[in-house]
Amino acid sequence: MAKTDIWMPLYIGDYLADTIGISLAEHGAYMLSLMAYWRKKGPLSVTELSQICNNHCDRVCQFYKKEGNFYRHTRIDKELSIAQDRQEAQQQRTEAARGAKLKKRETLVTIPVIENVTIPVTASPSPSPSPSPSHTPSEELKPSCANFENFWQAYPKKKNKGDAEKAFKVIKPSEPLLEMMLIAIEKAKASVDWQKEGRKYVPYPASWLRAKGWEDEYISPPSDNWTGLAEKNYREGMNADGTF
Question: What span, in angstroms and rounded, lies between the C-alpha atoms of 194 and 218?
Answer without folding.
Answer: 9
